[in-house]
Amino acid sequence: MKVQPEVHTGTLAEKPIPAGHIAYRPDVDGLRAIAVLSVLAFHAFPNGLRGGFTGVDIFFVISGYLISKVILTTIANGTFSIADFYSRRIRRIFPALILVLLACLVFGWQFMLADNLSALAKHAFGGAGFVSNFVLWHEAGYFDAASNSKLLLHLWSLGIEEQFYLIWPLLLWAAWRVRLPLMPVIVVTGIASFIVNLATVHHDATAAFYSPASRAWELMVGGALAHWTSPQGAHERSVLARVMASIGLRRELTREAWFGESLAIVGLMAIAYGLLRIDDHRPFPGSWALLPTLGSACLIAAGPRTWLARHVLASRPMVAVGLISYPLYLWHWPLLVAARTVHPEGPSAAVIASMLLIAAVLAWATYRFIERPMRSGSRNPAKVALLACCMLAVAGISATIWAKNGVASRYPEIVQRATEYDLNGWRAAMRHKRCFMELGQDASQFAPECVDAGNQPLWVLWGDSGAAAMYAGLRSIANEAGTIRLAQFTSSQCPPMMGFDSSGNRACTANNKWILEKIASLRPAVVILSAMWGQYDKSSLPATIAALKARGVGRIIVLGPVPTWSDTPSRITFNLWREDPLHRVPPAHLNYAKYGLGQADYRPGTFDQRTQTADAVLAKVAHDTGADFVAITPHMCDASGCLMRESDSSGTPFYLDIMHLTPAGSVFVAHTFRAEIGLPGKAGQR
């Protein structure tokens, strides 16, 4: 038997334990419970515990502490083995992860469109390879699928931990073999990572969030604590004792019970303050991550015999949650996303609570019947080989589905066409990042091609991404007319209204000011104002029209919003086909009273997103200011509903998502109102 130090009320207590093992700390499982419950609360009710996502940072500290503790203990005992270490990690991590990945793929096959299933398969492949953080890092963007629709979004943190497990044991072992002092290695690695974190969080927040280089310091905090309480940390402890003696403090100070109690309280307060004060609007991780990170370190360092550890963290309910925290973390997010997929209008609190309850039951069952049997006993090569083969099989299945673009052949050809998602083609049609300014761009980046050359009368399109989507249609009818030139000035989340303060686009106000002055210099014959009007306060629109008139614009056209949906028309169509007992193809007109955004669930006193309300407001503004109003909704809707594709026999989709027209949809719509704006077509055309 070897003698292994154990943290005890901020002290080092000697306790004999088997070689190759570390003393069990029920209070650490209680800390795991705080971490996972915080994450669950944030994901289920994001407006409740706004800093709940920092529970992941608590997990990082715990992982850094426990893994470093195991490595240092086995090194000290002379029992360290790379093969044994990775065998234990595989038996710990793989069983629950394999089950969750397979469950998500089955769900996606049954309920997801091809593009969504393809994305899920890519994420499952990244999860099986523990590189989810890199996959998600390179997906981030305004028109990327919303985070709450990604079943495996939460695996980014598992990717960072597994990358740590892959590199850190080898680094520590190599440093020990060449007799480098281990604490400086840990501290230097942690400081370097923290500097990367601070250097990137303000100018590339996505990189700071997902990169292991900017997250490693959190694991290093746990690693430093593990080293301090290990046999290898004896030198550092003696140095501290001498420093304390030199300033008149007793070296036994840290052994005093009150010291550990105080450290525990400080740690809990730091975590609690972070949960309450940190939110997704603050740069994170950055320096704010110090709160959950150092708070967790304080709670672990305080030891298992403080009042807080014994009566709260080590209590039976907290330990029970901590023991299933890993499968609970894996299960909860896919279930919440599945609920949002089935209830696109937003699941009720009761539905969300039921999903959390199901997650808890699945987590317990996974832990009891899958995880524990796989982890029990000594290293078993057969178990490890089986788990490795299963994970490779999951990766292979995921790669195949991804390579086949979600296997759209699962449903009929017309449904395949009606549910296509061509983001690249859509971006090309809207002249993305050239005449449509994405978030992070400003008006100085509008390309020369945004204004047609020539001497014909100029028409200017000004608006947000909805206006940019309309450009393809305006381009089509302008080319057919052959009598006008077009200019396009569109910005993301930025409607054509002076002084509009967009919470999503900081450059909006400056962009609109630039566009207004550009219009004054271009002296166009017509300005078309277009936007997803139902999403905005339109009170500054009259002043904008007046400003255009003051700058010599003779005609101003306010283009109404297109019908907007509570879920993407493609997914509505797919679900209607899937749920129909005879699998009949749904009609081109979808029930707008049922599926229109803000239609069925509108309540007086809430923000009104209905297109008919926006049309009424815009018509009045146009009448009062002398502008022309052109409504789009009457051209796309009738008593049976609103078009999501051209006809019952055509599968060509009109919508990219819930509100942006595809190029085909834009061209169709533009031809319906071309006569209203003064661009009649050729004979036989709309």
How does this structure look, described?
The protein is α/β, with parallel strands linked by helices and 686 residues long. Helix 9 packs parallel to helix 12. The chain has 27 helices and 11 strands. The radius of gyration is 30 Å and the shape is elongated. The strands form 3 sheets. The chain has a 6-stranded parallel β-sheet, with helices on both faces.
Characterize this entry briefly.
The protein is an alpha/beta fold.
Secondary-structure blueprint:
Elements: E1 2-8, E2 11-17, H1 26-44, H2 55-77, H3 82-111, H4 114-128, H5 132-137, H6 155-177, H7 182-200, H8 205-210, H9 216-228, H10 234-246, H11 257-277, H12 290-302, H13 307-313, H14 316-323, H15 325-342, H16 349-375, H17 381-403, H18 413-418, H19 423-430, E3 436-437, E4 458-463, H20 465-481, E5 485-491, H21 508-522, E6 526-530, H22 541-550, E7 555-559, H23 569-579, E8 589-590, H24 592-595, H25 611-625, E9 628-630, H26 633-636, E10 637-638, E11 641-643, H27 663-673
Parallel strand pairs: 3-5, 4-5, 4-6, 6-7, 7-9
Antiparallel strand pairs: 1-2, 8-11, 10-11
Low-pLDDT sequence parts:
1-20
Please give the alpha-carbon distance between the first and last residues.
89 Å
Total beta strand runs? 11
Mean pLDDT: 90
Give the total of domains: 2
Molecular shape: elongated
Strand content: 5-15%
Structural class estimated from helices and strands: alpha/beta
Q: What value does the Rg take, in angstroms?
A: 30 Å
